[in-house]
Design a protein that fits this description.
about 400 residues; alpha/beta; TIM Barrel; Elongation Factor Tu (Ef-tu), domain 3; 2 domains; eight-stranded mixed sheet; eight-stranded parallel β-barrel; 11 helices; elongated; binds pyridoxal-5'-phosphate
Protein backbone atom coordinates (compact mmCIF):
# COMPACT_ATOMS: atom_id res chain seq x y z
CA UNK A 1 0.00 0.00 0.00
CA UNK A 2 1.49 3.36 -1.00
CA UNK A 3 0.69 6.95 -0.23
CA UNK A 4 0.58 8.58 3.18
CA UNK A 5 -0.96 6.09 5.55
CA UNK A 6 -1.58 5.40 9.17
CA UNK A 7 -0.55 1.93 10.21
CA UNK A 8 -2.76 0.83 13.07
CA UNK A 9 -1.63 -2.11 15.16
CA UNK A 10 -4.91 -3.59 16.34
CA UNK A 11 -3.09 -6.18 18.44
CA UNK A 12 -1.52 -3.35 20.45
CA UNK A 13 -4.86 -1.60 20.87
CA UNK A 14 -6.33 -4.92 22.00
CA UNK A 15 -3.56 -5.27 24.56
CA UNK A 16 -4.11 -1.73 25.89
CA UNK A 17 -7.87 -2.27 26.17
CA UNK A 18 -7.56 -5.61 27.98
CA UNK A 19 -4.89 -4.31 30.32
CA UNK A 20 -6.76 -1.15 31.31
CA UNK A 21 -10.08 -2.94 31.58
CA UNK A 22 -8.66 -5.58 33.91
CA UNK A 23 -6.70 -3.17 36.06
CA UNK A 24 -9.60 -0.76 36.45
CA UNK A 25 -12.12 -3.55 37.02
CA UNK A 26 -10.14 -4.50 40.13
CA UNK A 27 -10.84 -1.00 41.42
CA UNK A 28 -14.51 -1.28 40.53
CA UNK A 29 -14.14 1.12 37.60
CA UNK A 30 -15.73 0.48 34.20
CA UNK A 31 -14.52 2.04 30.95
CA UNK A 32 -16.32 3.81 28.16
CA UNK A 33 -13.82 3.76 25.29
CA UNK A 34 -13.72 7.14 23.55
CA UNK A 35 -13.36 6.82 19.80
CA UNK A 36 -13.20 10.51 18.83
CA UNK A 37 -9.45 10.65 18.12
CA UNK A 38 -9.82 7.63 15.86
CA UNK A 39 -12.79 9.13 14.00
CA UNK A 40 -14.78 6.12 15.16
CA UNK A 41 -12.88 3.70 12.94
CA UNK A 42 -15.04 0.54 13.15
CA UNK A 43 -11.99 -1.79 13.22
CA UNK A 44 -10.74 -0.03 16.34
CA UNK A 45 -14.15 -0.02 18.01
CA UNK A 46 -14.59 -3.73 17.23
CA UNK A 47 -11.15 -4.41 18.71
CA UNK A 48 -12.25 -2.68 21.90
CA UNK A 49 -15.55 -4.51 22.17
CA UNK A 50 -13.80 -7.85 21.54
CA UNK A 51 -11.47 -6.91 24.42
CA UNK A 52 -14.48 -6.63 26.72
CA UNK A 53 -15.21 -2.90 26.57
CA UNK A 54 -18.98 -2.61 26.79
CA UNK A 55 -19.68 1.01 25.91
CA UNK A 56 -18.33 3.47 23.38
CA UNK A 57 -18.21 7.24 23.68
CA UNK A 58 -17.84 9.81 20.95
CA UNK A 59 -18.22 13.57 20.77
CA UNK A 60 -20.02 13.63 17.40
CA UNK A 61 -23.42 12.18 16.65
CA UNK A 62 -22.31 11.71 13.03
CA UNK A 63 -19.66 9.23 14.19
CA UNK A 64 -22.11 7.40 16.44
CA UNK A 65 -24.52 7.10 13.50
CA UNK A 66 -21.71 5.72 11.33
CA UNK A 67 -20.87 3.13 14.01
CA UNK A 68 -24.53 2.10 14.13
CA UNK A 69 -24.53 1.78 10.33
CA UNK A 70 -21.40 -0.38 10.58
CA UNK A 71 -23.49 -2.79 12.67
CA UNK A 72 -21.93 -2.02 16.04
CA UNK A 73 -24.64 -2.44 18.65
CA UNK A 74 -22.62 -1.57 21.77
CA UNK A 75 -24.27 1.17 23.88
CA UNK A 76 -23.11 4.60 22.72
CA UNK A 77 -22.56 7.63 24.95
CA UNK A 78 -22.42 11.06 23.29
CA UNK A 79 -19.70 12.73 25.37
CA UNK A 80 -20.38 16.29 24.19
CA UNK A 81 -23.56 18.11 25.14
CA UNK A 82 -26.04 17.61 22.26
CA UNK A 83 -26.72 20.52 19.91
CA UNK A 84 -30.32 21.63 20.30
CA UNK A 85 -30.61 21.20 16.53
CA UNK A 86 -29.57 17.52 16.78
CA UNK A 87 -31.58 16.17 19.72
CA UNK A 88 -33.74 13.90 17.52
CA UNK A 89 -30.62 12.28 16.06
CA UNK A 90 -29.07 11.96 19.49
CA UNK A 91 -32.09 10.18 20.92
CA UNK A 92 -32.38 7.93 17.87
CA UNK A 93 -28.73 6.83 17.75
CA UNK A 94 -27.03 7.35 21.11
CA UNK A 95 -28.05 5.35 24.16
CA UNK A 96 -27.16 8.24 26.42
CA UNK A 97 -25.46 11.62 26.46
CA UNK A 98 -23.44 13.92 28.70
CA UNK A 99 -25.45 17.00 29.60
CA UNK A 100 -25.12 20.34 31.35
CA UNK A 101 -27.98 22.49 29.96
CA UNK A 102 -31.60 22.31 31.20
CA UNK A 103 -32.95 23.51 27.83
CA UNK A 104 -31.18 20.62 26.10
CA UNK A 105 -32.51 18.12 28.63
CA UNK A 106 -36.04 19.34 27.97
CA UNK A 107 -35.54 19.03 24.21
CA UNK A 108 -34.06 15.52 24.63
CA UNK A 109 -37.06 14.53 26.73
CA UNK A 110 -39.47 15.80 24.07
CA UNK A 111 -37.58 13.98 21.32
CA UNK A 112 -37.42 10.76 23.34
CA UNK A 113 -41.17 10.97 24.09
CA UNK A 114 -42.05 11.40 20.45
CA UNK A 115 -39.78 8.49 19.44
CA UNK A 116 -41.12 6.28 22.21
CA UNK A 117 -37.66 5.89 23.74
CA UNK A 118 -35.92 6.52 27.04
CA UNK A 119 -32.65 8.42 26.81
CA UNK A 120 -29.88 8.04 29.39
CA UNK A 121 -28.44 11.20 30.94
CA UNK A 122 -25.07 11.73 32.58
CA UNK A 123 -25.03 15.14 34.24
CA UNK A 124 -21.63 16.79 33.93
CA UNK A 125 -20.37 18.82 36.90
CA UNK A 126 -17.87 21.67 36.70
CA UNK A 127 -15.01 20.95 39.09
CA UNK A 128 -12.43 23.50 37.99
CA UNK A 129 -11.17 22.81 34.47
CA UNK A 130 -13.75 25.31 33.13
CA UNK A 131 -14.99 23.47 30.10
CA UNK A 132 -18.39 21.76 30.33
CA UNK A 133 -20.32 21.25 33.51
CA UNK A 134 -23.08 22.36 35.86
CA UNK A 135 -21.80 24.35 38.83
CA UNK A 136 -22.12 22.13 41.93
CA UNK A 137 -24.59 24.57 43.51
CA UNK A 138 -26.97 24.09 40.57
CA UNK A 139 -26.68 20.31 40.30
CA UNK A 140 -29.63 19.42 42.49
CA UNK A 141 -32.06 21.55 40.45
CA UNK A 142 -30.88 20.04 37.15
CA UNK A 143 -31.08 16.52 38.59
CA UNK A 144 -34.64 17.23 39.70
CA UNK A 145 -35.58 18.47 36.24
CA UNK A 146 -34.09 15.29 34.74
CA UNK A 147 -35.87 12.99 37.20
CA UNK A 148 -39.18 14.69 36.43
CA UNK A 149 -38.95 13.62 32.77
CA UNK A 150 -40.13 10.00 32.37
CA UNK A 151 -38.47 9.85 28.93
CA UNK A 152 -35.08 10.54 30.52
CA UNK A 153 -33.15 8.17 32.73
CA UNK A 154 -30.68 9.78 35.13
CA UNK A 155 -27.68 7.43 34.88
CA UNK A 156 -25.45 9.44 37.11
CA UNK A 157 -23.02 12.31 37.27
CA UNK A 158 -19.58 12.92 35.84
CA UNK A 159 -16.87 15.49 35.43
CA UNK A 160 -14.22 16.31 32.87
CA UNK A 161 -10.83 17.67 33.88
CA UNK A 162 -7.54 18.12 32.06
CA UNK A 163 -8.83 19.11 28.63
CA UNK A 164 -9.13 22.91 28.90
CA UNK A 165 -6.79 24.14 31.62
CA UNK A 166 -4.92 20.94 32.39
CA UNK A 167 -6.49 20.68 35.85
CA UNK A 168 -5.61 17.31 37.37
CA UNK A 169 -7.93 14.90 39.14
CA UNK A 170 -6.91 14.95 42.80
CA UNK A 171 -8.23 13.64 46.11
CA UNK A 172 -10.17 16.89 46.66
CA UNK A 173 -12.09 17.21 43.38
CA UNK A 174 -12.70 13.45 43.19
CA UNK A 175 -14.01 13.41 46.78
CA UNK A 176 -16.26 16.33 45.85
CA UNK A 177 -17.73 14.35 42.95
CA UNK A 178 -18.30 11.34 45.24
CA UNK A 179 -19.97 13.57 47.84
CA UNK A 180 -22.22 15.15 45.20
CA UNK A 181 -23.33 11.68 44.07
CA UNK A 182 -24.15 10.62 47.60
CA UNK A 183 -25.98 13.89 48.31
CA UNK A 184 -28.15 13.50 45.18
CA UNK A 185 -29.00 9.93 46.09
CA UNK A 186 -30.09 10.98 49.57
CA UNK A 187 -32.02 14.01 48.37
CA UNK A 188 -34.01 12.11 45.71
CA UNK A 189 -33.93 8.56 47.12
CA UNK A 190 -32.41 7.23 43.90
CA UNK A 191 -29.37 5.14 43.10
CA UNK A 192 -26.87 6.64 40.64
CA UNK A 193 -25.47 3.88 38.46
CA UNK A 194 -22.51 5.87 37.15
CA UNK A 195 -20.10 8.26 38.81
CA UNK A 196 -17.78 9.12 35.94
CA UNK A 197 -14.55 10.58 37.29
CA UNK A 198 -13.11 11.76 33.99
CA UNK A 199 -10.75 10.77 31.20
CA UNK A 200 -7.21 9.48 30.71
CA UNK A 201 -5.90 12.35 32.85
CA UNK A 202 -7.47 10.63 35.89
CA UNK A 203 -5.11 7.66 35.63
CA UNK A 204 -2.17 9.31 37.48
CA UNK A 205 -4.56 10.02 40.38
CA UNK A 206 -5.48 6.34 40.55
CA UNK A 207 -1.92 5.16 40.00
CA UNK A 208 -0.83 7.29 42.97
CA UNK A 209 -2.93 4.96 45.11
CA UNK A 210 -5.80 7.26 46.03
CA UNK A 211 -8.95 5.27 46.78
CA UNK A 212 -11.57 5.81 44.05
CA UNK A 213 -14.40 6.59 46.46
CA UNK A 214 -17.68 6.55 44.53
CA UNK A 215 -15.91 6.86 41.15
CA UNK A 216 -16.88 3.74 39.19
CA UNK A 217 -16.43 4.88 35.60
CA UNK A 218 -13.88 6.60 33.33
CA UNK A 219 -14.14 7.71 29.71
CA UNK A 220 -10.80 6.79 28.14
CA UNK A 221 -9.38 7.75 24.75
CA UNK A 222 -5.68 8.64 24.82
CA UNK A 223 -4.68 5.90 27.27
CA UNK A 224 -6.26 3.22 25.08
CA UNK A 225 -4.97 4.62 21.79
CA UNK A 226 -1.54 5.98 22.69
CA UNK A 227 -0.77 4.42 26.08
CA UNK A 228 -0.19 7.84 27.66
CA UNK A 229 -1.81 10.07 30.24
CA UNK A 230 -2.48 13.60 28.95
CA UNK A 231 -1.23 15.74 31.87
CA UNK A 232 2.49 15.09 31.40
CA UNK A 233 2.21 12.73 28.43
CA UNK A 234 3.96 10.07 30.47
CA UNK A 235 3.83 6.55 29.05
CA UNK A 236 1.59 4.36 31.18
CA UNK A 237 3.41 1.25 32.40
CA UNK A 238 2.33 -1.94 30.68
CA UNK A 239 0.70 -0.20 27.71
CA UNK A 240 1.79 0.19 24.11
CA UNK A 241 2.62 3.76 23.08
CA UNK A 242 3.19 2.89 19.45
CA UNK A 243 -0.02 1.42 18.14
CA UNK A 244 -0.06 4.10 15.42
CA UNK A 245 2.61 4.98 12.89
CA UNK A 246 2.36 7.52 10.07
CA UNK A 247 4.20 6.57 6.88
CA UNK A 248 4.94 9.26 4.30
CA UNK A 249 6.90 9.41 1.06
CA UNK A 250 9.79 11.65 0.04
CA UNK A 251 9.06 13.73 -3.08
CA UNK A 252 12.24 15.87 -3.16
CA UNK A 253 15.67 15.14 -1.69
CA UNK A 254 18.62 17.49 -2.14
CA UNK A 255 21.60 18.95 -0.41
CA UNK A 256 20.55 22.58 0.18
CA UNK A 257 21.92 25.59 2.06
CA UNK A 258 20.75 25.82 5.67
CA UNK A 259 19.92 29.52 5.52
CA UNK A 260 17.14 30.98 3.37
CA UNK A 261 18.04 34.04 1.27
CA UNK A 262 16.15 37.12 0.04
CA UNK A 263 13.95 39.63 1.88
CA UNK A 264 11.82 37.95 4.57
CA UNK A 265 8.14 38.41 5.34
CA UNK A 266 5.52 36.18 6.95
CA UNK A 267 5.31 32.50 6.15
CA UNK A 268 2.10 30.69 5.22
CA UNK A 269 1.85 29.18 8.70
CA UNK A 270 3.43 29.73 12.07
CA UNK A 271 6.91 28.25 12.07
CA UNK A 272 7.49 24.85 13.62
CA UNK A 273 10.08 25.40 16.34
CA UNK A 274 13.10 23.57 14.98
CA UNK A 275 15.65 22.44 17.55
CA UNK A 276 18.89 24.46 17.60
CA UNK A 277 21.54 22.86 15.46
CA UNK A 278 25.21 23.31 14.85
CA UNK A 279 25.58 25.96 12.15
CA UNK A 280 26.39 24.35 8.82
CA UNK A 281 26.44 25.68 5.30
CA UNK A 282 24.62 22.79 3.66
CA UNK A 283 22.45 19.92 4.78
CA UNK A 284 20.54 17.00 3.37
CA UNK A 285 17.05 18.33 3.03
CA UNK A 286 13.92 16.54 1.85
CA UNK A 287 10.24 17.14 1.30
CA UNK A 288 7.57 14.64 2.22
CA UNK A 289 4.11 14.51 0.68
CA UNK A 290 2.42 15.33 3.98
CA UNK A 291 1.30 18.67 5.36
CA UNK A 292 -0.76 20.68 7.77
CA UNK A 293 -3.87 19.48 5.90
CA UNK A 294 -3.01 15.99 7.09
CA UNK A 295 -1.39 16.18 10.47
CA UNK A 296 -0.24 18.48 13.29
CA UNK A 297 3.49 18.53 12.43
CA UNK A 298 4.39 19.58 15.98
CA UNK A 299 2.96 16.27 17.20
CA UNK A 300 5.11 14.04 14.98
CA UNK A 301 8.19 12.26 16.23
CA UNK A 302 10.73 11.70 13.52
CA UNK A 303 12.95 8.64 13.13
CA UNK A 304 16.55 8.84 14.39
CA UNK A 305 18.77 11.11 12.35
CA UNK A 306 15.84 13.11 10.93
CA UNK A 307 14.76 16.59 12.08
CA UNK A 308 11.45 18.18 11.13
CA UNK A 309 12.27 21.80 10.22
CA UNK A 310 8.94 23.02 8.92
CA UNK A 311 5.60 22.32 7.34
CA UNK A 312 3.09 24.00 5.07
CA UNK A 313 -0.28 22.82 3.73
CA UNK A 314 1.11 19.93 1.73
CA UNK A 315 4.83 19.66 2.49
CA UNK A 316 6.75 18.45 5.50
CA UNK A 317 10.34 19.72 5.37
CA UNK A 318 13.02 17.65 7.03
CA UNK A 319 16.80 17.65 7.42
CA UNK A 320 18.75 14.45 7.70
CA UNK A 321 22.13 13.11 8.72
CA UNK A 322 22.25 10.94 5.62
CA UNK A 323 21.31 11.28 1.97
CA UNK A 324 17.65 10.48 1.33
CA UNK A 325 16.03 9.28 -1.89
CA UNK A 326 12.89 10.32 -3.70
CA UNK A 327 10.32 7.56 -3.21
CA UNK A 328 11.76 6.51 0.15
CA UNK A 329 9.22 6.18 2.95
CA UNK A 330 9.76 7.48 6.47
CA UNK A 331 7.85 6.44 9.58
CA UNK A 332 6.71 8.88 12.25
CA UNK A 333 5.22 8.49 15.69
CA UNK A 334 2.18 10.58 16.60
CA UNK A 335 0.90 12.37 19.67
CA UNK A 336 -2.81 12.92 20.36
CA UNK A 337 -3.04 16.09 18.29
CA UNK A 338 -1.22 14.57 15.31
CA UNK A 339 -3.34 11.42 15.52
CA UNK A 340 -6.61 13.35 15.71
CA UNK A 341 -5.79 15.31 12.57
CA UNK A 342 -4.31 12.37 10.66
CA UNK A 343 -7.46 10.34 11.32
CA UNK A 344 -9.53 13.25 10.00
CA UNK A 345 -7.54 13.82 6.80
CA UNK A 346 -9.22 12.39 3.70
CA UNK A 347 -5.75 12.05 2.13
CA UNK A 348 -4.40 9.54 4.64
CA UNK A 349 -5.24 5.90 4.25
CA UNK A 350 -5.74 3.71 7.28
CA UNK A 351 -4.09 0.35 7.29
CA UNK A 352 -5.09 -1.94 10.14
CA UNK A 353 -2.52 -4.58 11.08
CA UNK A 354 -2.71 -7.49 13.50
CA UNK A 355 1.05 -7.88 14.04
CA UNK A 356 2.92 -11.01 13.06
CA UNK A 357 2.87 -14.24 14.99
CA UNK A 358 1.65 -12.43 18.07
CA UNK A 359 -0.11 -14.10 20.89
CA UNK A 360 -3.40 -12.59 21.83
CA UNK A 361 -2.16 -10.80 24.91
CA UNK A 362 0.64 -9.36 22.82
CA UNK A 363 3.24 -9.87 25.51
CA UNK A 364 4.87 -13.10 24.44
CA UNK A 365 4.81 -12.22 20.78
CA UNK A 366 8.05 -11.90 18.91
CA UNK A 367 9.01 -8.31 18.32
CA UNK A 368 7.08 -7.01 21.24
CA UNK A 369 9.64 -7.55 23.92
CA UNK A 370 11.70 -4.47 24.60
CA UNK A 371 8.89 -2.56 22.99
CA UNK A 372 8.38 -0.11 25.79
CA UNK A 373 6.26 -2.52 27.79
CA UNK A 374 7.02 -2.65 31.46
CA UNK A 375 6.18 -5.43 33.83
CA UNK A 376 4.68 -3.35 36.61
CA UNK A 377 0.99 -2.77 36.86
CA UNK A 378 -0.28 0.71 36.21
CA UNK A 379 -2.58 0.52 39.14
CA UNK A 380 -0.41 -1.66 41.33
CA UNK A 381 -0.10 1.11 43.92
CA UNK A 382 -3.80 1.78 43.89
CA UNK A 383 -4.60 -1.89 44.31
CA UNK A 384 -2.16 -2.20 47.16
CA UNK A 385 -3.51 0.84 48.96
CA UNK A 386 -7.17 0.02 48.42
CA UNK A 387 -6.44 -3.39 49.93
CA UNK A 388 -5.14 -1.48 52.94
CA UNK A 389 -8.18 0.78 53.38
C1 LIG B 1 -12.18 13.56 24.83
C2 LIG B 1 -12.99 13.27 26.02
C3 LIG B 1 -12.70 12.14 26.80
C4 LIG B 1 -11.54 11.24 26.53
O1 LIG B 1 -10.36 11.93 26.86
P1 LIG B 1 -8.92 11.21 26.82
O2 LIG B 1 -8.02 12.20 27.46
O3 LIG B 1 -8.61 10.96 25.39
O4 LIG B 1 -9.04 9.97 27.61
C5 LIG B 1 -13.53 11.87 27.88
N1 LIG B 1 -14.58 12.66 28.17
C6 LIG B 1 -14.89 13.75 27.46
C7 LIG B 1 -16.07 14.57 27.85
C8 LIG B 1 -14.09 14.10 26.36
O5 LIG B 1 -14.40 15.18 25.66
Amino acid sequence: MRGPRLEIRLDRLDHNARTLRQQLARLGIAITAVSKASLGLPEIVRTWTAAGIDSIGDSRIETIEALNRAGITTPMLLIRSPMLSQVERVVAHATSSCNSEPVVLQALAAAARSQGRRHGVLLMVELGDLREGILPADLEAVAQLTLEQPALRLLGIGTNLGCQHGIAADPRNMAELSALATALERRFAVRLEIVSGGNSSNLPWLAAGHPPGRINHLRLGEALLLGREPLARTALPGLHTEAFCLVAEIIEAKCKPCRPWGRRGQTSFAAVAAPAQRPRAQRQRALLALGIQDVDPAGLSAPAGITIVGASSDHLVIEADRPLAVGEELRFGLDYSALLRAMTSPFIQRHCLQGHGLKRDGLQGKGLQGDGLQESSLLGNALASSARV
